[in-house]
Design goal:
about 280 residues; mainly alpha; Leucine-rich Repeat Variant; 2 domains; two-stranded antiparallel sheet; about 65% helix
């Protein structure tokens, strides 16, 4: 196994696996060195190191060209677990979209490569309908392995499209009910919107957070403080910026959150929590 000696300031981290050193460097402030180390770790001879490096790059979500190229190359790794982690990482990188590379991987002769690409496509904020049109053409390809890859990706994207559509429908109904002050029924619809949400992409997370935030609003209007706090906790986990939204609303003389005014748990825990939103 390749080992890295990482020096930070006047001290040494010692002999560490590359992917561990990369994560430490990134978290301790030397972000570029951390990214570079993780990219190198993707080529380590040890399968575990490569897999963890791919996972770490997905966690930090830095979408520069070197990271994209390294993860796309990792889709061809001999290990299925490394390919899967690379696919998952690519699915989390929102700002740069390696869609052409992933579509090309659907035509790979080996099933593991096709599966990794299909899973990555299902985890990205991409135009689902237009992507399905491209994949539909691949389903008619003369090569059987290309058809298999296309069918797998098509099925995953169809499932995602259905889930997103159902969640959006519940969210629309809930908003309408909330506007008519039907708080109890609206709360149930917001809960359904949250449950149907696939919670995979960044957009999913924002919509899931909005559903929980509005559900908390309904419960606050019904003077159900504890359930409202539970929903706010979940909303903040998916979108931490909603803390600012809540504080801005509560600062107004007339607001929907009167039942929570002066609440110790809200003030000292929820509004000070720095939990990073998932996906």
């Amino acid at each position: 196994m390749i080992l890295a000696t990482a020096r930070i300031g006047s001290g040494f981290l010692g002999e560490l696996r590359l992917e561990v050193a990369g994560k430490l460097l990134y978290r301790l402030g030397d972000q570029q060195a951390g990214i570079d180390t993780l990219v190198v770790a993707l080529k380590d001879q040890n399968e575990y190191v490569r897999r963890q490096a791919a996972a770490a790059l997905g966690e930090i979500k830095v979408s520069d060209a070197a990271v994209i190229a390294a993860l796309v190359a990792a889709l061809k790794d001999q290990s299925s677990s490394v390919r899967g982690q690379a696919a998952a990482a690519l699915g989390k990188l929102e700002r740069i979209n390696p869609l052409p590379q992933l579509l090309a991987q659907l035509a790979h002769p080996l099933s593991g490569y096709r599966t990794a690409a299909a899973q990555a496509l299902a985890q990205k904020d991409i135009p689902i309908d237009s992507t399905l049109q491209v994949i539909a053409k691949l389903k008619e390809d003369k090569r059987p392995w290309v058809r298999l890859g296309a069918w797998e990706a098509y099925e995953l994207l169809e499932q995602r499209r259905e889930a997103v559509a159902q969640s959006a429908e519940y969210l629309h109904k809930a908003d309408s009910l909330l506007a008519r002050n039907q708080y109890s029924v609206a709360s149930g619809q917001f809960e359904s919107a949250f449950e149907k949400n696939p919670k995979v992409t960044h957009t999913d997370s924002l919509n899931a957070a909005r559903a929980k935030f509005q559900q908390a609003r309904c419960k606050a209007k019904l003077k159900r403080a504890v359930p409202a706090l539970d929903d706010l906790k979940i909303a903040f986990e998916y979108n931490p910026t909603l803390r600012d939204t809540l504080q801005a609303e509560m600062a107004k003389p007339e607001n929907d959150w009167k039942v929570l005014e002066g609440n110790w748990y809200l003030r000292e825990v929820l509004l000070k929590n720095t939990t990073i939103a998932p996906k």
